[in-house]
């Protein structure tokens, strides 16, 4: 689920939050990093729990509507198609998923049911819903496409849900784009006979990714003094406030990758940190980082320092 860029962002947040130095006990930094990474999986499970609750809401709605109907008093939509959505049933009936949600105590949508109500009303008032109930075709494929459409166009962009996630867990706002992308990928691959584990992907692609996260944090912290000196020698015309900001953290991480991660190409490192700077720092930060990092790479190459070998780790 996690990609390398998001791992770098998590490390950046940990380093910037604590501003530890190489003489400090870095245990707290490591714990914060792993907690921040693991909370991303909690967000993923929370969204699935939300979809389950929205489906339950549709079932309750359908039952109430049908109870009011008589043989001569029929209405165009009794909510049954939404209530019987095969794709949502596949999610809701997944015992392993239910267990994972319960274990992490992420069944909070019962208490925060107002958000379920808001989203359900937004769905049934949307043209996507009207097109769905008017579609005479009824299949797992059409049911899945409906869920993909309402999630992409109604649920994921909802401002109130965004604010709710931000209040619930601050780091979730940064995690949302990655989680949403992964959720859509998983949904698209899911078939009617999918195993229960298909909805429970691994957080890390492999053990190398988890080790990369810890190594980047540790090596940046343990070599902080030398990294600061390296930056200072290349930034004589830049004020100390910029170096004390997020830019300084990103520079230390990037130079640490140059020096301590021989299998990551320098170009990959530069591109990754420029993209992170564009998203998280000031408008001029990417230009600043690019200038400093380019100068350092040229110096390393001319002196034969910190050569790279092997394939990249992206």
TrEMBL record:
InterPro entries: NusB-like_sf, NusB_fam, NusB_RsmB_TIM44. Keywords: RNA-binding, Transcription, Transcription antitermination, Transcription regulation. Residues 206-298 form the NusB/RsmB/TIM44 domain. It comes from the Bacteria. Belongs to the NusB family. This is Transcription antitermination factor NusB. It comes from Winogradskyella alexanderae. The gene is nusB.
């Amino acid at each position: 689920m996690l990609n390398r860029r998001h791992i770098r962002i998590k490390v950046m947040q940990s380093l910037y939050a604590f501003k530890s130095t190489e003489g400090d006990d870095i245990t707290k930094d490591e714990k914060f990093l792993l907690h921040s990474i693991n909370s991303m999986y909690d967000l993923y499970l929370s969204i699935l729990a939300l979809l389950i609750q929205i489906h339950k809401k549709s079932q309750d709605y359908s039952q109430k509507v049908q109870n009011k109907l008589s043989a001569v008093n029929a209405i165009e939509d009794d909510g049954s198609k939404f209530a019987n959505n095969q794709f949502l049933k596949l999610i809701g009936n997944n015992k392993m998923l239910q267990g994972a949600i319960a274990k992490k105590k992420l069944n909070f949508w019962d208490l925060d049911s107002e958000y379920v109500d808001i989203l359900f009303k937004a769905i049934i008032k949307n043209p996507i819903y009207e097109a769905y109930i008017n579609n005479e075709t009824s299949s797992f494929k059409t049911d899945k496409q409906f869920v993909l459409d309402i999630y992409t166009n109604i649920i994921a962009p909802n401002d109130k849900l965004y604010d709710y996630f931000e209040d619930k867990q601050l780091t979730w706002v940064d995690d949302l784009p990655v989680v949403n992308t992964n959720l859509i990928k998983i949904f698209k691959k899911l078939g009617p006979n999918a195993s229960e584990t298909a909805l429970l992907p691994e957080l890390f692609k492999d053990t190398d990714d988890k080790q990369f996260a810890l190594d980047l944090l540790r090596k940046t912290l343990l070599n902080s003094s030398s990294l600061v000196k390296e930056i200072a020698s290349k930034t004589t015309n830049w004020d100390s406030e910029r170096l004390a900001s997020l830019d300084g953290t990103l520079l230390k991480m990037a130079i640490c990758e140059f020096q301590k991660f021989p299998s990551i190409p320098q170009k990959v490192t530069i591109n990754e940190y420029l993209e992170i700077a564009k998203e998280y720092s000031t408008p001029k930060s990417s230009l600043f980082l690019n200038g400093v990092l380019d100068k350092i790479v040229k110096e390393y190459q001319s002196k034969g320092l910190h050569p790279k070998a092997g394939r990249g780790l992206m």
